[in-house]
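User: For a reading group we're discussing how well predicted structures match intuition. Take Antitoxin. Before you show the prediction, I'll give you the sequence so everyone sees exactly what went in.
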Amino acid sequence: MLNLSRDIQSLSNFKRNTSEFIEQMKQTGSPMVLTVNGKAELVVQDAASYQKLLEAIEYLETITGIQQGLDDLNAGRVRPLEAFTKEMQQKHGIPSSDY
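Assistant: Thanks. Here is the predicted 3D structure of Antitoxin, as structure tokens, for the group to look at:
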């Protein structure tokens, strides 16, 4: 969670105290919003927190994809694998692998 008094700083202040702010971000795991002329311009965060964010996004995208598949299944928007395979073979000129 963003702490407004701690995690919003001017870019000038960040430049002057970079090492302190890096340590703060590592300890808290919170990003820092940097302002220029009083307006939010950048968000900075430590690498470990960024990696966790990317993993969380990937997880949520996976869950969303699974939910979409289940919704399609429940709505009848499915077809047999054989029909899909035949369509792709014809569309892309893939020879049949019938044995």
